[in-house]
From TrEMBL, chains A, B:
It comes from the Eukaryota. It catalyses: a quinone + NADH + H(+) = a quinol + NAD(+); a ubiquinone + NADH + H(+) = a ubiquinol + NAD(+). Keywords: FAD, Flavoprotein, NAD, Oxidoreductase, Transit peptide, Ubiquinone. Gene3D superfamilies: 3.50.50.100. Residues 441-506 form the External alternative NADH-ubiquinone oxidoreductase-like C-terminal domain. The lineage of its organism: Eukaryota, Fungi, Dikarya, Ascomycota, Saccharomycotina. Residues 80-404 form the FAD/NAD(P)-binding domain. This is NADH:ubiquinone reductase (non-electrogenic). One of its GO terms (cellular component) is mitochondrion. Pfam families: NDH2_C, Pyr_redox_2. It comes from Hanseniaspora guilliermondii.
Amino acid sequence: MFASRMRTFNVLKQNTSLLSKRLQSTAPKVAPVKKSSILKPIFYGSLLAATAAVGYGVYGLYKEQHPAPLPVETQSNKKKLVILGTGWASITLLKSIDTSLYDITVISPRDHFLFTPLLPSAPVSTVAVESIKEDVSTLIRQGSGKVTFLQKEALDVDPQNKKVIVEGDKAVDYDILVFSVGAQPNTFGIPGVYENALFMKEANDAVILKAKLKENLQKATELPAGSQERKDLLSMIVVGGGPTGVETAAELQDYISEEVAKWNPELAADCQIHLVEGLGNILGMFDQKMYTLAQDHLKKNGVALKLNAMAQKVVGNTITVKDSKTQELVDMKFGILIWATGNGTRPVTAKLMSRLPETQNNRRGLLINQKLELLGAEGSIYALGDCTFHKGLVPTAQVAHQEGEYLAKVLETRHIIDNTDNDAVKASLAKTIKDFDYFNQGALCYIGGESAINDIKMSKKIEFKLGGSFLSFKVWQCAYLAMAVTWRTRFLIACDWIKVHIVGRQ
Amino acid sequence: MFASRMRTFNVLKQNTSLLSKRLQSTAPKVAPVKKSSILKPIFYGSLLAATAAVGYGVYGLYKEQHPAPLPVETQSNKKKLVILGTGWASITLLKSIDTSLYDITVISPRDHFLFTPLLPSAPVSTVAVESIKEDVSTLIRQGSGKVTFLQKEALDVDPQNKKVIVEGDKAVDYDILVFSVGAQPNTFGIPGVYENALFMKEANDAVILKAKLKENLQKATELPAGSQERKDLLSMIVVGGGPTGVETAAELQDYISEEVAKWNPELAADCQIHLVEGLGNILGMFDQKMYTLAQDHLKKNGVALKLNAMAQKVVGNTITVKDSKTQELVDMKFGILIWATGNGTRPVTAKLMSRLPETQNNRRGLLINQKLELLGAEGSIYALGDCTFHKGLVPTAQVAHQEGEYLAKVLETRHIIDNTDNDAVKASLAKTIKDFDYFNQGALCYIGGESAINDIKMSKKIEFKLGGSFLSFKVWQCAYLAMAVTWRTRFLIACDWIKVHIVGRQ
C-alpha cells in the first residue's frame, strides 16, 4: 500500500516537474514560478494530509485496542442508566457519553453492533460478516466507566415503577431508560412473505442468504443449461427500491457478473436479478437525475427493474405483483426472494405502548417530544431510532446516530444538574438543553459495477452530488469507512475490499 | 509489507557496512574484503530469493484466478472417473491429474475443500473459517478438462456393475472409482460423548465451537466472579493429545490469555483449559524431547494437562475419566467438551465393505494393496485417505496428499496404456506403475503463545527439529502456508495472521 502510494507521489512529482518545464518553455518568465509554487504546496499538503490521516487511524486503532484498566468497584451513588438495544442509537450514545457518570447497563439479545450500511455486501462476501460486527464486550470497554452488558431480551417495561423485565422473569431497575430496540421486518400482512422470503436486517440474514445462494447455484449445475426450471431457480427477486434493496440487488449482480461468470459462465447466463418497487422510481430520497442514473446503471448491468409493482402474495416459489397503473397481476418465479422493505414494531415496543395508552396511540412507532423523551414518561424514558415515530425523523442509521450523540450531551448535562444544589444554576443549566435538531447529511447508495450515487450535504448550503463514475464509488467507500464506529471495523472492511480485488469473492 | 521489508533490508545493509568498517579497522587488510564479499552475495541472494518467491506467488495467484475457457463439449470416448469426496486425497488428485484425460465427476455432500491443519485456529478467529475453505466449483476449473461436481452424498457402491448410488436414488456409472470419503469422529461407544461433545472435523464444527464459546463467556459475565458455577461454565476440556487436540487447546488458551484477558480480565481468571490424553504423554509422533517441551510449554501457558486419563462416560456437563495407573475415577465439570480423537467408518464405507465380504473384513478401514487398489475390486476401485486401513499409512493429511499425487500419475499412465494397441508396450508401461511409497515428511504442531514444535524430514537423511522458540512458530507458519492447496488460501491465511497482530481476534 505504502509503496504504491509512494509510487503515485513520485509520478505526481515527475508530472509536476514536467509540467513546470513545459510551462517554462512556452509561458513568460514570471508565470512558471507562480504555477509551480501552487503545485508544490498542493503536493506537500496532500502528503502531509495523507500522513496525518494514517497517523490518526493508527492512533485511533491503538487506543481502541488498549482499553483503560477496569475501574475499582465502589458503592455507587450514580444514577442507573439502562440502555435497551445495541444498534446505532445505543452504541453511538455509549461511545459518546462519559461512561463514568452513570451506572450503565446495556440490555440486548444481540451481543454485537452491526454496521448495517454494509450488510448488503456480506451475503456475497464483498465484506466478511465478521468485519461488520463489533462485539459489545469490546465496545463497553472503550469508555472510562464500568458498563454492564446483559445479553437478554427485554420483554416489558414498567414506566411507573421504573423497571425493565427481561427473559427469565428478571427485573432491572432504572432511573433513566434509553429505549432503542430498533424495528423488525414488516411484511404488511401480505400472505406468504414471512414464510418464503429472506430478510436483510441482521448479520444472520446475510449468512442465510449466502448459504441459500450457494445451494441454489450448486443445484442449478445439475439442471440442463437454459431450461426454465434452472432459470426459475436462478431468479432472485429483491422487493424494495430503497438503499438496502438496491444495494442488495447490485451486490448480487456483481457476484453473478464477476464471480459466477468467471467460474461457470453457463450458469451465470441463466441467472437473473429482479428489483421490485411499488412506486414509479427507486431511491426516492435522491433527486430525479440521480435515481434515473441509478436505474439506467442497474439495467445496463443486467438487473431487471419492475416499478409500480405492488406485492400481493407469495405462494411457494411464486410472488404475485400487481401493476399499480394497469392493475394487471403478474406471477414471478424465484429461487430466492429478499424482502428489503418495511419496518415493523417489535413486541416489547408494542407492550410499552400498551402501558401508556393515553399518549402512545400511533401504531407506527413510539411518540416522542423534541427532546427525544417518550410521551407519557418524560424525564425517565428516552426513545431513539427505528422504534420511534416522529415527523422529520426517518428510520435511518443517520438519524439514530445523531440522536445518540445528542442524548449523550443531554445526559451529561443532566448529571451536572443532579449534582448541583443551587436551584438557580439547575434552572439555567436545564435551559441549555436544546431540542434535538436533525441535520440531514444526504444519502449514499452503491449501484453495482464499482459505481455509486452520492448526495452529500456538508452544511445547509454546501451540497455535492456525484454519481455513476469510479470516483463516485471511491467517495462512497470513503464515506462508509468514515461512518464505521470503530477503527477496527474500518481496517477490516478496507482489507476485505482489497482482498476482493486480489482473490475475488468466495 | 514491502516498505517494512525494504526497511529491514536497509538496516541489514547498514549493519553490513558497519560490520565491514569495524573489520577494516581491526583485521589485516585482506580479511575485510573477503568477509564483505561473503555478506554481499548473501544479502543480494536473499533479496533475489524473496523477490522470486513473491513473484512466484503473484504468478500462481494470477493463474488460479484466471481459469482457461471451458472446453467445448464433444461426444466423449473418455473413461469415466468418479471421485468420491472433497478432502485431501480427492482434491490433490484433482489438482495433480491432467483433467482432460478422463470424464471426471466429483461427488460429495461437501461443496468445499477444508484446509484441516488450520481448523483448530478457526473457532477463535485466528484465521477465518472462510479463509481455510476452497470452493469445489473453483477447484474443478483449475485444470484444462471439464469436471462435473455433484453435491450429493454417496449412499452405496455396486462394484460388480460399477455404479455409485447417490441421494435421490440416482446411479452414477464409473469405469474407475476413487473412494476417498474420509472418516467421521469416533466416540468408541463411550456413553454420552456423541450427545454432549463438540467435534473438530468440519468447517461447521469451528462455527459451532465459536458460537458456544461466545455464549458461555457472555453467560459467565452474569455469574459472580470466582464462583464455582462460573468456573464450571468456563472449564473447557479437550479430549485427545494428538495435533488436533493440542492445537485446539493451545488456540483456546491464546484466546483466553490474549483476548478475554484484555477485554475482561476477571472473566479470564475463571477460565481453565484442560487437555485430556489416555496415554502417558501427548503428541506421540514426536520424540520425547519434543513432546516434553510441548507439555511444559502448554502447562506454563495455563493449560491443565491430564495424562493417563481414559474417558469413561459423559453425563450432562460432567465427564468421568479413569486414571489408567491408579484406576481412580475423577469427575470433571465442563462448559465445553471437545472430542478431538478417533476416526470412525462412514456408513457408505461400511456398506462398501459389506459388498465385498470376502476381502474387506477389517472394521478399522478399507483394505488396499500397495497400489492403493481396493482389495476385491482391483483395477476399478482405488481407496485413499482416512477411510482406508493399511500398515504404515496413518490417517493424516500428509498421507492422503501423497496418495492423491501418486494416483494422479498412475491414472495418467493407465490412460496411455488404454490408448495403446501394442500389447508389448502396454505390458512394459504397466510395469512402470510402481507401488505407493509413503515418505514421512515429519510433523508440526502449534503449542500456543507463538510457539510450535517442528520435526521436518527433508529427505531420508536430512531431518531438522525445532521447538519452543518464536522462530519455531514462524517455521510452522511457513510450513502450513506451503501445505495450502491454493495461493488464494495462502494469501487469505497470511492476511488473517497479520490482522490478528493489528486488531486481535473477535
